[in-house]
């Protein structure tokens, strides 16, 4: 009897603990929402008070996008970005690679960067970030949005082309002895003027950019003055290379690892059904929780091949995400392989079209042949009569 009472007491204590944990989680969630509300308010106060500002969108905890009449304004806190990097960016060191950008420094607040991307227009009407742009071929939005909305159509090739353009951007940064630090779908802005126009890819996040010594390409070095991923950002640390997530060891190899995850996320977004778009980010977060702390595990164990992904592109992802940074491919090789994958997809698409035309011709000839035989048979029957 005493034992049963003790068990009941333990059960009640356990239930009380669970309830207490749930209440704490609820309070934390409310605090986060309140903090986000305060942050939005501060950001809106910082923005110019003009009727041109149409909307402000949170891309991450540090990056916002304000949609204005003729431009997109991306505003981002720079955190612990080194002074040398800030000076180089202010003096236009990467103006031939990045969109128009300015660094704002104020003693009262954390330094921040502003990237400006002009909005596309047709006949004076701004297109914005609308999926309707699919109708006339105009594209103007983040890689994440256009992929989930299938704005570029239902063929994988244009999305691979976006990744190829992003790889060229990464290669240019490495040539200039800069690391990208972090790259993801929401911080790549895609534009295309018309259905037959070229795709333009803009990097709108610069918080993790840093200069590295090109003589130490093959060495990972820890520099505590550099910005390292915040442990609270599970998505960021899950897409970062193991040496970055654990020790903040940035290198060209860590950029390549992050790019491998970018490719995987993009093709997973392409596979995502339209009725599951709202849960896509949640699934990424669950995958981030699953992979956390499993550095020794092979990347492909937790990143299965997307259904739409060509085998050579998936192999390229695996080449980018080797555990040892020395075994990963270079940015130049990455761009070359993606270009080859694009040509393979184009050749495959051409072959499919030719096969479809051939099949339709064969079917037509087959129908004509049987129609002729039917006519001959009727003629013979009539002549016999």
TrEMBL record:
| Compositionally biased tracts (Basic and acidic residues) | 7-17, 30-48
Question: Where along the chain is composition biased (Acidic residues)?
Answer: 18-29
Offer one Pfam family short name for this entry: PK_Tyr_Ser-Thr
Entry GO MF terms:
protein kinase activity
> Where in this protein does the record put region Disordered?
1-48
Superkingdom, natural source: Eukaryota
| Gene3D superfamilies for this protein | Transferase(Phosphotransferase) domain 1 (1.10.510.10)
Identify the residues that the record assigns to the Serine-threonine/tyrosine-protein kinase catalytic domain, covering every copy: 223-338
Q: What protein is this chain from?
A: Serine-threonine/tyrosine-protein kinase catalytic domain-containing protein
């Amino acid at each position: 009897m005493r034992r049963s009472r003790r068990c009941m007491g333990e059960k009640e204590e356990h239930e009380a603990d669970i309830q207490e944990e749930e209440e704490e989680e609820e309070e934390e969630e409310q605090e986060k929402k309140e903090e986000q509300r305060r942050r939005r308010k501060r950001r809106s106060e910082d923005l110019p008070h003009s009727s041109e500002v149409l909307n402000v969108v949170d891309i991450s905890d540090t990056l916002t996008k304000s949609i204005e009449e003729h431009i997109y304004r991306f505003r981002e806190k720079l955190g612990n970005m080194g002074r040398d990097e800030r000076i180089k960016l202010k003096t236009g060191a990467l103006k031939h690679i990045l969109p128009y950008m300015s660094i704002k420094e104020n003693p009262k607040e954390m330094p921040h960067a502003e990237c400006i991307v002009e909005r596309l227009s047709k006949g004076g009407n701004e297109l914005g970030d609308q999926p309707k742009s699919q109708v006339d071929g105009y594209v103007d939005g983040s890689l994440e949005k256009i992929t989930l909305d299938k704005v570029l159509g239902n063929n994988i090739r244009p999305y691979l082309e976006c990744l190829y353009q992003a790889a060229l951007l990464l290669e240019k940064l490495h040539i200039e002895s800069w690391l990208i630090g972090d790259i993801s779908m929401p911080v790549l802005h895609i534009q295309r003027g018309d259905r037959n126009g070229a795709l333009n890819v803009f990097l709108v996040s610069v918080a993790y950019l840093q200069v590295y010594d090109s003589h130490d390409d093959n060495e990972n070095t820890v520099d505590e003055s550099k910005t390292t991923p915040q442990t609270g950002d599970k998505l960021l640390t899950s897409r970062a290379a193991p040496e970055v997530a654990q020790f903040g060891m940035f290198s060209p190899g860590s950029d390549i690892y992050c790019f491998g995850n970018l490719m995987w996320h993009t093709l997973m977004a392409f596979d995502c059904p339209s009725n599951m778009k709202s849960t896509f980010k949640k699934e990424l977060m669950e995958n981030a929780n699953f992979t956390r702390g499993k550095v020794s595990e092979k990347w492909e164990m937790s990143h299965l091949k997307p259904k739409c992904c060509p085998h050579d592109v998936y192999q390229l992802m695996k080449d980018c995400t080797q555990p040892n940074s020395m075994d990963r491919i270079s940015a130049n090789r990455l761009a070359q392989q993606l270009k080859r994958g694009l040509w393979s997809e184009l050749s495959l698409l051409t072959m499919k079209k030719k096969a479809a035309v051939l099949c339709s011709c064969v079917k037509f000839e087959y129908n004509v042949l049987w129609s002729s035989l039917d006519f001959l048979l009727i003629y013979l029957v009539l002549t016999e009569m």
